[in-house]
Design goal:
By secondary structure, the protein is of the alpha/beta class. The strands form 4 sheets. A 7-stranded mixed β-sheet has the order 4-10-9-8-7-5-6, sandwiched between helices. Strands 11-14-13 form a 3-stranded antiparallel β-sheet. Helix 5 runs parallel beside helix 6, helix 9 (about 210-220) runs parallel beside helix 15 and helix 16 (about 425-450) packs parallel to helix 18 (about 520-535). It has 18 helices and 14 strands.
């Protein structure tokens, strides 16, 4: 039964025009509600009719009916009724009482959109009306489109969830803020070298890497006042292998290393591979993730302690260790004769004007330092898997080389690209640096404008750890991918609990990487704000 027919029947059954008094308007309002006009719309229509009757001095039934008809027609005027299919995916929701033609309209629209070359997915959310899903499936077959359905009586929300998952698989846009994969172009020098490779055989390289690359790296470090010979540099398969080989060479099963946390999650895996134990010293977001007091380190030092591991500038926090903090670490390393593993892959990205203090700058511990490096971040070349392990300790170098020889060689093609990339003009590094400056400001300002969100200002790298107004960031991050979208888009974040040894820490924190262009960061911030609002307003 159509709307106007329902209205007519409800009108004839309950409304009389003998007298235009309050009782008449009450009857009219009830009739409109019974005809599914809606409470708010019915109340508004009656009030408008009252005014028209009074202003125009209407007395005849036909005059009043015409006035009401005009009011209702005006309410049905919605302007441009064309579908907005600009989002990905676009969702069209059909609601209405039984018999108004929802299923038929859905079927016709599905056929039309399919004929226009669009991908169409029907979702049978009406699980209570008998044969409703069956009817929709018939229309899906006729139109040649897919359908998501469950049995009668199923939770409609679960059906919609399945449909959302299917829709995501079909193209919901996800802004990846969870991983440090820069989107900036790699240097043209590196890409050109890749294109020019003309070899008949792609052979093994030396186990410690090509000498020409190690010479180039030595020259690169010179600009940071780090004096090295090619023999003190070992080329590895990414920075990760450098960390693993350092641990395997320096640590015995049961040995312990002290790590300021939050820390790069893979450190834990590499320690486990070496049979070692990570003893965390936890920093706090309230203190900007500054290095804890020396006393906190010394509480953990025992006969099994073999080293301290730092990441400077830090992943995941973006914290930059001060000269004072580096000197405190140096003193502990010297006092207890510990190894100092220093991951410095983000040295190119320091934003505060503060000096870069490398572990290799520390005097008196030269034989204790193991420097970890990679070309992944500074040249946007994560895929070539070229890193470096640097040490002046010959005994340690010999131990590392045994692992290098066992895996034969680092990637040949990657070394060629990395060596050429070192020759990139200074303008390349400057442009990349300035871009991250802008992204950093955009992200941090935007995060701290979202109600309940707090992020300290990262001093280096391209990450920040932010506190969110949620109890469980793991659940929130998963929900953003499984249950939430805003205009066909969502965000992917990294729960900070994964950066602590104790999984109960960082439960309301996330790591965010600002490796997307400014426009995408701004959009991501909008979506994140919408997600937090929706998540915290769930019933």
């Amino acid at each position: 039964m159509g709307f106007f027919k329902q209205l007519k029947e409800a009108w004839l059954a309950s409304v009389t025009f003998d007298k235009l008094d309050d009782e008449f308007y009450d009857q009219l309002e009830e009739a409109l509600i019974l005809a599914d006009v809606g409470v708010d719309s019915a109340t508004d229509a009656v009030e408008k009719l009252r005014k028209k009757v009074k202003e125009r001095l209407l007395t005849r039934a036909d005059e009043v009916k015409d006035a009401l008809r005009a009011i209702l027609a005006e309410k049905l005027e919605v302007g441009d009724a064309s579908l907005n299919l600009s989002t990905t995916p676009s969702i069209v929701l059909f609601i209405g009482v039984n018999g108004v033609g929802k299923t038929t309209s859905i079927g016709k629209l599905a056929a039309q959109l399919k004929a226009e070359g669009k991908k169409v997915l029907l979702c049978a959310g009406d699980t209570f009306r008998a044969a409703a899903a069956d009817q929709l499936e018939i229309w899906a077959d006729r139109a040649g489109v897919d359908i998501i359905r469950q049995n009668e009586g199923a939770d409609p929300g679960s059906v919609l969830f399945d449909a959302l998952q299917a829709a995501k698989a079909r193209g919901v846009k996800v802004y990846h803020l969870n991983i440090g994969q820069p989107d900036l172009p790699s240097p043209q020098t590196g890409l050109a070298a890749l294109k020019k490779i003309d070899r008949k055989v792609l052979e093994y390289s030396p186990s410690d890497g090509y000498r020409s690359l190690r010479e180039k790296l030595a020259g690169y470090y010179q600009q940071y006042q780090i004096k090295l010979s090619p023999e003190e540099i070992i080329v590895t398969t990414g920075g990760s292998e450098a960390v693993l080989f350092a641990f395997m060479s320096c640590l015995n099963p049961g040995d312990e290393i002290i790590v300021p946390e939050p820390a790069y999650a893979n450190y834990m895996a590499f320690a486990i591979s070496a049979g070692a134990v990570i003893r965390p010293v936890v920093s706090s977001i309230e203190q900007g993730f500054a290095l804890p007091d020396v006393a906190e380190f010394e509480k953990l030092i025992n006969e099994r302690t073999r080293g301290i591991l730092i990441c400077n500038p830090n992943n995941p926090t973006g914290y930059l260790y001060t000269r004072r903090e580096m000197n405190r670490i140096r003193d502990m390393v010297k006092k207890y004769d510990l190894f100092l593993f220093s991951d410095e892959v983000y040295r190119e990205f320091i934003y505060t004007g503060s000096p870069y203090i490398s572990a290799c700058h520390l005097e008196g511990v030269e034989q204790n330092v193991v420097l970890i490096d990679s070309v992944s971040k500074r040249y946007s070349e994560c895929g070539i898997r070229i890193g470096a392990l640097i040490t002046k300790n010959k005994k340690l170098r010999d131990a590392v080389m045994k692992f290098c020889q066992a895996r034969l060689s680092p990637p040949l093609i990657g070394q060629i690209v990395a060596e050429a990339s070192i020759d990139a003009p200074r303008s390349y590094s400057t442009e990349v640096y300035e871009e991250y400056i802008e992204r950093r400001k955009c992200l941090i300002d935007g995060l701290n404008r979202i109600p309940g969100v707090y992020s300290p200002i990262p001093m280096g790298a391209f990450y920040t750890v932010a506190r969110l107004p949620v109890e469980d960031s793991d659940d929130f991050c998963a929900w953003c991918l499984s249950d939430f979208e805003y205009e066909g888009e969502t965000v992917m974040l990294a729960p900070a609990s994964g950066f602590y040894s104790d999984p109960t820490r960082g439960r309301n924190e996330v790591r965010i990487a600002y490796v997307l262009k400014k426009e995408d960061l701004e959009r991501s911030l909008l979506i994140l704000g919408k997600a937090l609002e929706a998540y915290n307003n769930r019933k």
